[in-house]
Amino acid sequence: MEENTNRFLQGLAVCVTFALAAGFAALIFHAASDYTTHYTAVKIYSIAWFAACVLSFYCGLLVVPRSLGIIFSFTGLVAFAILCALDAGTLSAYPYLGRIVQILPAMLFLLAWAFIAIASCRSESKKTRLSSWLWLTVFLMLLFSWGAFHFAQGKLHNQRNAHIAEAREKTLQLVEKLDAYKKDNGAYPDTLAEAGLTEEMAALDYRDKRIKYFGHGTDFVLTFDDPLLSSQKAFSWDTTKNGWFPEDPKDTIDNHSEHMFLGFLRQR
Description:
Blueprint: H1 2-32, H2 35-63, H3 69-85, H4 88-92, H5 95-121, H6 126-185, H7 199-202, E1 212-215, E2 220-225, E3 234-238, E4 243-245
Antiparallel strand pairs: 1-2, 2-3, 3-4
Helix pairs in contact: 1-6, 2-3, 2-5, 2-6, 3-5, 5-6
């Protein structure tokens, strides 16, 4: 009877551990796949990983000092530092190698936590064995949230690409109609409504945004915001610049690194 009770409690602990990790990953996915909460999700995700990586050194040095956890923690830190210092343009020339390099730090830290959890579970110390449930929870939360975050980020980036392409196309349609208006009237209108252009023609399908128009008689500017709040970019069609300013929106489509810290030190 006592053996069955112990097995039940162990099974219950495993279920609770997986449920906590899955729940955290679900929250990260939900937040990271939405424009308005993506930036907050990135900060929480980054802080959580940083805290877990620091904790892995503590566990590898003090809790289970004879495990391979500390070795993987150290190599993970070195790999992350190298990744931050790399030039993103260099890796883009080698797509498959670039993918491996970008996931390597996370893989090393995940291996560190896997060995920490295993070593603590096999420890002769009862206190250390009991702590293995906490380390297993940390490992699973990192594993599940890593997959959920990057899946959500890829999904959101694809959505952003579609919205950027749509906004660009709508802007060019407005440019064509405004040029036709100037040809007939000798100047650009003060507002889009004056040219008979409806609000729907300038409406965008993200964050209740629209294309903004600024008319100046012989010139005009049409501008729209990047869907991602963290980008803080605006794209404009400016007649004084003879086109897109500061860059054509289509040049930003698919122009991103999978790892958000790739080349981070070079930007500072």
